[in-house]
Sequence to fold (378 residues):
Amino acid sequence: MRIAHFCDSHAGRPDGVARSAELTVRLLRAAGHEVDFYRPGPLLSRDGVRSVPVPLRQVRVGLPFTPRPADLVHAHSTGPIGMTGFRAAADWGVPLVMTWHTDLLAYADLFAEIPVGAAWCAVRLGLGWSPREFLELTRPGAVRRHRLVALGQAMFARMAVAIAPSDKAAAGFAPFRPAAEICVLPTPVGAVAPRPARTGGNVVLSVGRATAEKNPELLLRAYAQVRAARPDARLVLVGVSQQRRRLARRIAALGLDGHVQVVPPVPHDAVAGFYRAADVLAFASTTDTQSLVLAEAEAAGLPVVVADPELAVRPGAVGAARFTCEPTPDAFAAALLRMLDDDALRAGVTRDGMAAAAAYPPEVFLRRLAAIYHRACS
Fold:
C-alpha cells in the first residue's frame, strides 16, 4: 500500500502537528510501508514542497504541486498542502484519513489567518458559498463560528476516518456531525531519559509558545500566587519566540522580574534537560487537543499539573487520570503548590505518568494506525 501524508507544518517547526506527522511517517516507513510525505520545504530546494515563509510567523506556505497517486491519503492539516491531499483523495478515488490536530473553533478568534484560510479552503472544496457567507468569516463570535462549523461539516463529509488525538478532541467533533468513523489515537512519545529523584524543589516549568492560545496570562497570574506562598519558587518558560516583549511587560507588571527565566525554542532533544531540572510542569493551555509536552514530561518522571480537566485522560487511556484543575489563577496556583509540597501526591502522579507512557509505546500506535488504514481501504 502506498500512503500519501500531507502536512502544512515544516520540518523543525516547534509544534505538535509537525512532530506527530514526522513520527507517523517514520514509523510507517520502518514497518515497510511505502510513504510519500508532503510538507513545506525551502523555496529553491526539492527537499519537500516548495514554500515561502510568512513574515514574523513560524509558518511556511506551500506552493502548488502535483502529488503522485497513492492508495490512501492521510492529511494532518487544512492549509494549502493539506487541501491538496483532500483534492487528491477525491481525484484518485481513494480513502481520506485525517488527524484533526487543531481546535479550529477555539483558534478562530485568536489568529487572523484562520478566517483567511477557511475562505480559501471553501474555494478549494468547491462549496459554492455566496459573498455574504464568505463575509461571515470576518465577524467574530457566533456568526464566524456558524460559518466555520459549515466548513468543518464539509471537510468531515469527505473523510473516511477522522482521527482524534484525545477524547477531548473527539468530543469537539460533535458540531461537525461527522459521518466518518471516529478513532481516538493519541500520538506517542519516544523514550525519554528518566529524571533523577528530587525533593524540596521549587522549579515550575512551562514548555511551548507563549502566544494567546497557550494562556500565558493564566500561568503568570498563578505563578505570582505560588511565589507569594513560596518566595524561592522559579518559573522557567521554554520555547518562547513570538510576543516576547508583551510577555516581558506582563512579567514586569506582575512584579515577577528576576524570577522568570524565558528561554527561546531549543532543539527537541534539549528539552529533556529542562524536564530533568524541573519539579513540576505547569500546563495552562485550554485549546490543546493532546499536547505531546504532557506525555514527554510524564515519560521523564516529571509530575504535571493541567489546567484543563478535559485532558485528564492520558494517551491510550491507561492508568489513573492526570492531576487537573480549573483554568483559574486561584485553582491553578493551589494545584501547583500542592504538587510542590505534597510528597505523596507528587510520587503517585510521577508513578502513574511513567506507567502510562510505558504502556503506550510507538508500537501500539503503529498497530492501531495500520488497522485504521485497513478498515478505510476495505
Observations:
- The chain has 14 helices and 14 strands.
